Here is the input.
Amino acid sequence: VAPATPVCEVPSSAMTGTVVQMSCKETEGSPPSEYQWYKNGVALLEKTEAGSARAANITYTMNKKSGTLLFNTVTKNDSGEYFCEASNGIGLSQKCSVKRMQV
Here is the structure.
């Protein structure tokens, strides 16, 4: 079953230095969807355990299985427009509407 349009929860504003968790979920896809977050139209990298040099400045943890995007301490650089995409390899992937977070 192709995924449904996911529901995204993105706070509209956050204080610098606070913990922010965004969530993305859809329940119709079978097999269960994986979730990819985007910021300003660019796919966010999943931080690997190895932690390449390129990923050294990543301040978030993205879980593709649960759809959560967690910032341990948000900075002004994390302000932007976020959306997530659900895909399970069947049919078209589905995106939620873009939501802006201001830090």
Q: What stands out?
A: The longest strand covers residues 80-87. The radius of gyration is 14 Å.
